[in-house]
């Protein structure tokens, strides 16, 4: 546990120490005695006792008189943050964790008319002929994230989209017929994820999963993209899909406690 130090004239040391006590509890130490808390925080037993009993009084810590443990009330501290942030802010740390795990680029996008718009991204290396930044747009039909989003549209909205979009070939394997495209969307709807293999651009392979709000509606999508020479479709399904789906679930869980007015704002 890092030491508490005064860094400015407005620093409140007692608040910092109280948070230090809360952070001492973790997966390895869900319950601790007074002595263990003092040792983990580098506080004296007397100081640790004061902070613990204050937290017990406030409802953030429980004790049976010997051991101490956090209560579910500490989640309110995280909810206060989550309730004030938007989808990109919620998604960014999850994308960073995903990229660290799979060593490939990851992004989040939303549907805007016929296109997807990137709202969060963590790149590793440039694998497209164009740079992808926040605000970059691509035709939804040729992207894994776009197909995840289109697959959740109401039938009337999807019919309207298909009646207006021109499924032009953008890559060597782009689906260009409405019948084949609707068949692919049905497959995505059933399996819950999309894999696009060199349909937006030659050499680009991506896999995407839906991000849902508290009403279980798909409001965004998250993907992992890689160069076709590094990852086969089978490897994408076996190695990239599980961490991708776990990331989508974590973002969805955080999004569920954020105000809907800000949840998908860009």
UniProtKB/TrEMBL annotation:
Residues 73-257 form the IclR-ED domain. GO terms for molecular function: DNA binding; DNA-binding transcription factor activity. Residues 12-72 form the HTH iclR-type domain. Signal peptide: none annotated. Keywords: DNA-binding, Glycerol metabolism, Transcription, Transcription regulation. It holds the Pfam family HTH_IclR. May be an activator protein for the gylABX operon. NCBIfam families: pcaR_pcaU. This is Glycerol operon regulatory protein. It comes from Saccharopolyspora elongata. The lineage of its organism: Bacteria, Bacillati, Actinomycetota, Actinomycetes, Pseudonocardiales.
């Amino acid at each position: 546990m890092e030491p508490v130090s005064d860094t400015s004239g407005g620093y409140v040391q007692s608040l910092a120490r109280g948070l230090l006590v809360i952070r001492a509890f973790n997966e390895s130490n869900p319950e601790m005695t007074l002595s263990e808390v003092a040792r983990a925080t580098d506080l004296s037993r007397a100081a640790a006792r004061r902070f613990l009993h204050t937290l017990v009084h406030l409802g953030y810590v429980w004790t049976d008189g010997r051991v101490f443990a956090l209560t579910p009330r500490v989640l309110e501290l995280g909810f206060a943050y989550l309730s004030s942030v938007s989808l990109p802010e919620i998604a960014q740390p999850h994308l960073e964790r995903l990229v660290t795990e799979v060593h490939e680029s990851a992004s989040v996008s939303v549907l805007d008319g016929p296109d997807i718009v990137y709202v969060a991204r963590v790149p590793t290396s440039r694998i497209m002929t164009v740079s992808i930044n926040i605000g970059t747009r691509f035709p939804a039909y040729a992207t894994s994230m776009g197909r995840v989003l289109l697959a959740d549209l109401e039938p009337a909205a999807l019919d309207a989209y298909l009646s207006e979009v021109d499924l032009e070939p953008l890559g060597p394997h782009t689906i260009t017929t409405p019948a084949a495209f609707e068949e692919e969307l049905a497959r995505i709807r059933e399996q819950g994820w999309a894999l696009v293999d060199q349909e937006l651009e030659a050499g680009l392979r991506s896999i995407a999963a839906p991000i849902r709000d508290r009403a279980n509606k798909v409001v965004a999508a998250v993907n992992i993209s890689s160069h076709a020479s590094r990852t086969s479709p089978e490897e994408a399904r076996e190695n990239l899909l599980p961490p991708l789906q776990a990331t989508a679930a974590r973002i969805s869980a955080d999004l569920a406690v954020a105000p809907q007015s800000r949840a998908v704002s860009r």
